[in-house]
Amino acid sequence: MFLLAAAGFLGTLAALYAPFRFLEPLRGLARLGLLGVTVATIAAYVVVVGFVFDTLAIVDKSVEGFLVVVLVVDGVLALRRRRVSAGSAEPGEVAAGRRAA
Fold first, then answer.
1. What range does the domain containing 52 cover?
2. CA distance 37 to 8
3. Does the residue 32 lie in any domain?
4. Is the residue at 12 inside a domain?
5. Alpha-helical regions (H) of 18-54
6. pLDDT recorded at residue 94
């Protein structure tokens, strides 16, 4: 089970950050896939082991929780970049997505 999770992490991570142009349309789907694999790994741990957390489990689940937060923030920033690069930004917005004062 853990080898399949590792393969899922590596595959979706490669699809998300590999520097190939043909993967550009799939980046959002890869981000959702990596998010899904991460949440599924956390849920599978709880189903298989229960709510028993030793030191390694606490570190592992903390890292996975941090990955979930990073993926959500990365997704929001990617949507903002796509909106700004598509020219749909409002005239007062700068690249960071904030309005000019």
1. 2-85
2. 7
3. yes
4. yes
5. 27-49
6. 53
CA 80/CA 95 separation, integer angstroms: 8
Q: What is the pTM of this model?
A: 0.70
Quote the CA–CA distance of 36 and 43 in Å, as a whole number: 10
Per-residue pLDDT of the chain (101 residues; tens, 9 = 90+): 678 878 878 888 888 888 888 888 888 888 898 898 889 888 988 999 888 888 988 998 999 999 999 999 998 998 888 888 777 555 555 555 555 54
Nearest-10 crossing angle of helices 27-49, 2-17: 160
Contacts of 68 (CB under 8 A, 6+ apart): 35, 38, 39
Q: Which helix (H) or strand (E) holds 93?
A: none
**Domain count of the chain?**
1
